[in-house]
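Researcher: Re-running this chain for the archive, since the previous output was lost when a drive failed. Same request as before.
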Amino acid sequence: MKVLKTYKLYLGGKFPRSESGRYYAVKAKNVHVANVCQSSRKDFREAVISSRSALGGWANRSAYNRGQILYRIAEILEGRKGQFIEELEMQGSTNTNAKKEVQSSIDRLVYYAGWCDKYQQIFSSVNPVSSSHFNFSVCEPMGVVAAFAPEESSLVGLASVVASVIAGGNTCIVLASELKPLCSITFGEVLNSSDVPGGVVNILTGKRKELLPHFSTHMDVNALIYCGSNRDEIGLLRKNSTVNLKRAIVKNGVDWSSEEAESPYFIADTQETKTTWHPIGI
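Model: Regenerated structure tokens:
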């Protein structure tokens, strides 16, 4: 007798069910393949608390150590390729496309692992000033980032968003694809088996339409990433982000399996620039 997998949430390094007890059915080619937790507003609030608690420790880790951890995630994902390929096929992908998506996800994690200790050199600067001061501009993580993973991608889009956010020292809450969520919680298992501290990445499954207002109005979220093209959702997100001046980042039309989806500028999207003045001769 085959034991079917129970797909839960990934919050604070644990795998709870939604506090609401709700779930929804995932179908592929009109076949029921799994039941997935339908996250609530309270689940999201718990994820924000978890992310905020983990932020200090993660942001203060050395860039080199963050790179090591991202590389470790890629190693574990490499060892579980078969499981991810099977889940992608369950959601309607061909075997060829499934293999390509898993390999792209592994490559993407290694790519951002390499940038962890390099993006500062690209985006920081020593500024010329007309006074007896040194003037330095450096990048600092924005804080808690809430993200909407691409709907059309089950794994590589989610992995790309998560990797670019945490490479820069942020913590994140990501809402997985509503139609193809299976790989998201399995990816949470990979994170949990790696050296990523609990709370650095929190993965929710559920309805984007229901959760978008809560994501965009929460006062303890510092930035939003929206992957999609729905104009109404983009408009609502940008409007609500003004409540506490969240940075709203829209990624529309990105081919997440291509080189277009890997760039140090994706790390810079969730960085703030801090400028320090230091007198010369003191």
